[in-house]
């Protein structure tokens, strides 16, 4: 299976809300999972061992929760991305960011935008508290469930 075919499978997964696909063809097997356990596994039947390759974005998403948990206290809440898209800190390039580290946010306050398929989706805080961490940079792609902000309730 080439890269173009794999991308088509991923697009079909997203369009049909599938979390796992496994394709077996011509002596090789490809298994793709998403939503917390993103693993791309090419397996050759002639090889006894199984090789797993994790895409770079999935590795970042997997590392983000552990990094935020270690640097922030146990009494924190996370604002996670509800979708795959591009993260923006402000409504336009020349506008100031919605929130900054150290600022207190209110319930229902817009904290960022995630652009998905040319639609700008406002992400609102579900907790009142002080922003202690913002691991995602402006314009960076984000995955479903990836931590956007860590909030310390007040």
Name the shape in a single word. elongated
Radius of gyration: 18 Å
Question: What is the CATH class designation of the largest domain?
Answer: Mainly Beta
Helix content: 10-25%
Q: Tally of extended strands? A: 11
Largest sheet: 4 strands, antiparallel
What is the string of helix and strand elements? HEEEHEEEEEEEE
CATH superfamily of the largest domain: RNA polymerase II/Efflux pump adaptor protein, barrel-sandwich hybrid domain
CATH architecture field of the largest domain = Beta Barrel
Q: How many domains in all?
A: 2
Q: What is the CATH topology classification name of the largest domain?
A: OB fold (Dihydrolipoamide Acetyltransferase, E2P)
Number of helices: 2
Alpha-carbon distance between the termini? Answer: 52 Å
Question: Which tags fit this structure?
Answer:
2 domains, elongated, 19% helix, alpha+beta, 4-stranded antiparallel beta sheet, 11 strands, 154 residues, OB fold (Dihydrolipoamide Acetyltransferase, E2P)
What does this structure look like?
- The protein is α+β, with helices and mostly antiparallel strands and about 150 residues long.
- The protein folds into 2 domains: about 5-45, no CATH class; about 70-154, OB fold (Dihydrolipoamide Acetyltransferase, E2P) (Beta Barrel).
- The protein contains 2 helices and 11 strands; from the N terminus they run H-E-E-E-H-E-E-E-E-E-E-E-E.
- It has a 4-stranded antiparallel sheet, with helices on one face. Strands 8-7-5-10 form a 4-stranded antiparallel sheet, with no helix packed on it. Strands 1-2-3 form a 3-stranded antiparallel sheet, with helices on one face.
- A hairpin with a 6-residue loop joins strand 2 (about 30-35) and strand 3.
- The radius of gyration is 18 Å and the shape is elongated.
- Residues about 35-40, about 45-55 and about 60-70 have low confidence and may be disordered.
